[in-house]
Amino acid sequence: MDISILLALQTFRNATGDVFTPFFTKMSYIGEMEVVLSIMAVIYWCVSKRYGSYLLMGWSANRILNGFLKVTACAYRPWIRDPRIVPDPEALSAATGYSFPSGHSVNAASLYGGGMIRKEFPKILRIFFGLIVVLIAFSRIYLGVHTPQDIIVGALSGLLVMWLISKLMNWVDAHPEKDWTVLLIGGGIAVAVAVFAALKSYPEDYDAAGELLVDGAKMAKDTFKAVGWGLGYLIGWVLERRKIGFSTDVMMKTRASRLVVGLLCHYAISLILVPMLKTWIPGPAGVVVSCFIQMFFIVFIFPLFIKLFEARKSESRAEG
C-alpha cells in the first residue's frame, strides 16, 4: 500500500511536469533540522525565553525518540525497497538515516505543531500551524523520500511528545528545584539510546553486485546527533536557569542585535566548528560532541554572553 501511494504520486508528479515540486521542496526545507533549530534559537533569545525553552526541549526529546525508533525499526528508504521509486533529486540530500519515522515530520510537529497545541494562541494561528505540519509531512511522500507510514507516525509521535513536554514544563515551573531530576532522567535516556545505537546489530542486505545496500553505522548518525543535542539542551537549560537567568523582556533594538549576533555565531559553529570537530573526533563520539556544543551554545553560552554584555552596556550608560 505504501509503495502504491508513492508510485501514484510519482506518476502525478511526472504527468504535471513537476509543477508542484518547487512548492513542496520549499515546504520540506522549512522542516529541515538546521532551519527548525535556528528558528527555535531565535525565539529563545529574542521573543520568549519560556516558549523557546519549551520548543527546544520538545524538539530535543523528539529527536532522541525519533533516533531510537529509526535504529530499532531499520526501515529502508522507499527507493531501496522498490527500484521503481525515483525520488526528487533535490530531496535526497536531506534524506539521511533510516526511513521510519520521518524526521522532517517530527521537526514540523515540534516547531509548528508545538504552537498548534498551545491554547493561548489564536485559533486561526493554530490552524495555520497545523496546516504547515500537514504540508511538510506530505512533502516527504510527494518527493518520494518517505512512505505514508513514516510521516503519520513521525507527526503523531512528535505532537504527543510536545504535549507531554508542555505538561513537564508546567510541572518544573511549579517545582523549580526539580530541574536536576529532569536532567538526570533525560540525560540517562539519551545515553542509553546512544549505547543502544552503538552496540546493536544492523541489517546487512546486498544487491546483485554484492554491494551493501545500507550501511547501518551511517544510518545511526542521526541518532547520535539527537543524543548530542539532547544532552546539550538539558545541561545548558539547568545551568542557565541556575546561573544566568537572562530575559527576553527587552527593547526591540536589543532583540534585533541578539538575532543578528546569535545567528552569525550559530552558523559559524554549525558550518566551521562542527565539521572540524567531526574530523578531529572520529565516529559517533565526534557527532555527539559537535551537536552537544551546537545546542549548548544556543541554550547556555550565548545567553551568558547576552547577560554579561548587556549588563556591562547598562553600567556604561549609568556611568555616562
Explain what the structure shows.
With about 325 residues, this protein is an all-alpha fold. About 75% of the residues lie in helices and about 0% in strands. The protein contains 13 helices and no strands. Helix 6 (about 105-115) crosses helix 8. The longest helix has about 35 residues, at about 285-320. The mean pLDDT is about 90.
SSE layout:
Elements lengths: L1 H14 L5 H9 L3 H15 L1 H25 L4 H4 L21 H14 L6 H20 L5 H27 L4 H21 L16 H4 L1 H24 L7 H29 L2 H37 L1
Helix pairs in contact: 2-7, 3-4, 3-6, 3-12, 4-6, 4-8, 4-9, 4-11, 6-7, 6-8, 7-8, 9-11, 11-13, 12-13
What's the alpha carbon Rg, rounded to whole Å?
21 Å
Overall, the morphology is globular
Major sheet size, sense and barrel closure: none
Helical content stands at over 70%
**Alpha-carbon distance between the two ends:** 72 Å
Count of extended strands: 0
Multimerization status: single chain
Number of helices: 13
Mean pLDDT: 92
Low-pLDDT runs of 5+ residues are none
The share of residues in extended strands comes to under 5%
Helix and strand pattern: HHHHHHHHHHHHH
Structural class: mainly alpha
Brief summary of the model shown:
With about 325 residues, the protein is an all-alpha fold. The protein contains 13 helices and no strands. Helix 3 runs antiparallel to helix 4 (about 50-75) and helix 12 packs antiparallel against helix 13 (about 285-320).
Offer a few descriptive terms.
single chain, 320 residues, mainly alpha, 13 helices, 76% helix, globular
